[in-house]
Write a structure and sequence with these properties.
Number of helices: 12
Number of strands: 7
Shape: elongated
Structural class: alpha/beta
Helix content: 55-70%
Mean pLDDT: 89
Largest sheet: 7 strands, mixed
Strand order of the largest sheet: 1-2-3-7-4-6-5
Distance between the termini: 64 Å
Low-confidence stretches: none
Length: 391
């Protein structure tokens, strides 16, 4: 039977030999090729980790000492063990207690390494540290799987990891950008909720309650309580505690929350949508949901859409342009509220770079535009193969 047009025994033997070699050695060649790419990505992520550490160190001191480098390096290995959830009763209180302990640990460390920093810059430093820790964890996990693949020679595991790499790299780049954004106290995508709240606070003066600003004013003839994290340092505050107290203390007509929301591919960054429920990305929304359900308070939300990675990066211009639209929707919502009582407006998110009134919001908007222009220049340099971080 002719094979490849060659009827000779030698031609058949060569074909069979080639088939056997490919069957046994091709998977190994594929594995070697994948390992080369995965190793390169692991090294890149470890380089990102080094850069985030340098960002934090430079935020603390222009000439960091060896002791400071060791302290920050050790703190980047920080971890928190989640509470037991086999018995779900009381899990929210356990999580709340654990998160508060973590926050206190970060605050104490920032005060230890940067005692002369003002409170706002220390709050931003906490955000930078959390970004550096996250980046370190991503790099360690990828390195773990790369070394596991080297030991086991598992082609299947290498293929799975390689398929995930585009998403991992996207998150890692966003985390690198986010670490710099938070450490320097620049407005970030997730700051859009507090920015809308600050815009609506206007010239009113708010009260500071546990790193949370509470301002009371009349909007469209209605009594409104505006709640946001204290800025311009990078904080999340305790808005859910204030909401819970307000609902239990008096008659509340409605709770309106404004927050960043993840968009689907194909949706436009900065588009605004309305919905029902608490727009809050953590378990803390359960506290608001519980008290709202108990008191039969309507819960509505306004979401400014962006890609998940855009939420932790410097604020995109398309998101910044959504502020007037979001403010207009909230004002119309307040005007259309028929039920009597106070309306609670909750600006959810990290208030990095965003102060506590309209004037400070204008400063944040100007800063966001400057940073966006700077990042665009960096991206162009990166395309040309230039190093923009200088490390």
């Amino acid at each position: 039977m002719p094979l490849f047009g060659d009827t000779s025994f030698i031609g058949t033997a060569i074909w069979i030999g080639f088939f056997v070699v490919m069957m046994f050695f091709y998977p190994r060649l594929m594995l070697m090729q994948m390992l080369g790419k995965l190793e390169g990505t692991a090294l890149m992520l470890e380089g990102y980790t080094h850069k985030t550490k340098q960002i934090v160190l430079r935020r603390i001191s222009n000439k960091p000492s060896h002791e400071l480098r060791e302290k920050v390096g050790n703190f980047m290995e920080f971890f928190a063990i989640e509470p037991v959830n086999l018995d779900p009763y009381g899990i929210l209180n356990k999580l709340n207690h654990l998160v508060e302990l973590v926050e206190d640990k970060f605050k104490d460390f920032s005060k230890e390494v940067a005692p002369k920093m003002n409170p706002e810059d220390q709050a931003s430093l906490v955000g930078g540290l959390s970004g550096a820790i996250s980046m370190n964890q991503i790099a360690k996990i990828v390195r773990h799987f790369v070394e596991t693949i080297k030991k086991t020679k598992s082609l299947q595991l290498a293929m799975i990891l390689q398929m995930q790499m585009p998403f991992i790299e996207k998150v890692a780049k966003a985390m690198l950008n986010g670490t710099e954004t938070m450490a320097n106290g620049w407005p970030m995508g997730d700051s859009i909720g507090p920015m809308v709240a600050s815009h609506m606070i206007g010239d009113s003066r708010g009260k500071d309650i546990r790193d949370t600003i509470v301002a009371r004013k009349k909007i469209k003839g209605r009594s409104v309580v505006i709640i946001k994290a204290k800025g311009p340092g990078g904080r999340l505050g305790k808005p859910w505690e204030v909401v819970e107290k307000e609902v239990r203390r008096g008659k509340v007509a409605k709770i309106i929350s404004v927050d960043a929301a993840g968009k689907l591919e194909g949706e436009r960054t900065g588009s605004v949508a309305e919905g029902i429920g608490v727009a809050m990305g953590s378990f803390y929304r359960a506290f608001i949901e519980n008290v709202a359900t108990e008191k039969k308070v309507p819960i509505e939300s306004v979401a400014i859409k962006m890609a998940p990675e855009e939420a932790i990066m410097n604020m995109p211009l398309d998101v910044l342009k959504a502020v007037p639209r979001a403010v207009s929707i909230v004002e119309q919502n307040i005007k259309n509220t028929k039920k009597r009582g106070t309306i609670i407006l909750l600006g959810v998110g990290n208030t990095s770079g965003v102060g506590n009134d309209k004037k400070s919001t204008e400063v944040a908007e100007k800063k966001a535009k400057e940073i966006s222009k700077m990042m665009k220049g960096r991206a162009e340099q990166e395309k040309q193969g230039k190093r923009w971080f200088g490390f």
